[in-house]
Amino acid sequence: MRASQLVCFIGWFALAALSIISATAQAAPVTWSSPTNVAGDADVITTGTLVAARNFSQTQLAPLVNGVLFDIFPIPNGGSGAAGIPNVATLAFNNADSSDTAYGSASAPFSSLSAQYQYLLSSGAGSSTGATLTLTLFNLNSGTPYLFQWWSNDSDLNFGGVNSTTATATNAVTLDENTLNAAGGLGQWASGTFIASGATQAITFSGPRPVINAFQLRAVPEPGALTLMAFSAAALGGLALGRRHRS
Predict the structure, then answer these.
(1) What is the average per-residue pLDDT within 13-27?
(2) Angle at Cα 60 formed by Cα 186 and Cα 115, nearest 5°?
(3) Domain 29-221 has CATH 2.60.40
């Protein structure tokens, strides 16, 4: 096969493979990372482009952590229903536990976090009866890869502390709300990637007394697509270099 024909074949193969990846991934569920213990501001992921960042609370000021501003997502304390931010998300809840400060602690290691990170993790929403919380994300672009990050923390044991919360969107990940099971203990966070198959994405949170403090949504490059494009570029570059050596 001549070099020009091989170049055309590689280019066609890359385009075809990208189409297959995109078509398959658009219907993919959320693929979760492993749970990670809360450690510091660098926990907040900054990959890609920020779409939305919110902390669940009643009146909490919006904290800025690792350069990401988490605006408020007000949830009433008690009662059942749904609260939302237009074009961003809604949270459906039953027997809500919502607070600006009750999920934090004056004890270490929680008190050793930055003030802004403490604000983020001191506020939160949950269910006092263990009812499932459903977060629905809006205004997504079909076919776009997204990264979703969330936190579950109860450092003061006001709402149990020894509980865990599971996020489910076909696949599931479970976070420990207080890894020390003691006042001042820290919870965990996890991230998940998905490719939007429509304008909305629902994620449920369940557990003995589920807690979610905050979330962020980011538009990110598709890893498989980037790998394939890098391979194709390298192959094309190698062919061009070979042709220059032969000439």
Answers:
(1) 33
(2) 45
(3) no
